[in-house]
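REVIEWER CHECKLIST
Item 1: Sequence provided? yes
Item 2: Single chain? yes
Item 3: Sequence as submitted:
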Amino acid sequence: MPRPSHSLPRRAWWLPLCGGLLSACASLPAPSDANTRSTQEFPMTTTASPSTPLSGEDVSRRVLKLIGSLRSNADLTAEHLERHTGLRMQRADSGDGSFGAGAAIDANWSYNLLVSPKLGEPRQQLTFDFARTGDPAAPMTAVCALDFDAYARALKDMGFQDSPTYAEHGRLSYWNFRGPVTLRVFVEGESNDSPEAIGHRCVKTITVE
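Item 4: Structure as written out by the authors:
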């Protein structure tokens, strides 16, 4: 299946951060916030616990809820992410101020949500990634219930302006979404099973600055 042309993390970085125990990265119920528009637009479909992993759809809804709550790069704090995703943030052992959350979705997929400082800049960067942690050729079906088109509609409803960025030979590199913060969205075909599946765009990675 088509792969995005970028070098963002593909491994499950949360394993060492959480001591290799999924229970250490267990999700918390999302708190109620009547003033957050995206809470109603992207309700949580499950509450994760050590024995109830989040689905790919629920992770996507939490990420969209978070994006809808961001008013500037200064909102990329552990407290803000916990409040708007319902996920417990874990500090990285590196001591550089990085933090994040992540867990397995199923036997082949995990999610990673990492915030780290931009080198040489007074800003943070958030990286969200669906990572293959089982079969390296696993189709994206398990994490594509909310596909790129659903993400794009939601982001436009939030007021983001979108534009594609192309690499050599007219190949799509990623999508830009500009609003209170700037997003880059990298997509991948769902599978190689059929032309329709190849052309079905799924969200693989998002960066937020």
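Item 5: Key structural point noted by reviewer: The chain has a mean pLDDT of 81.
Item 6: Recommendation: ____
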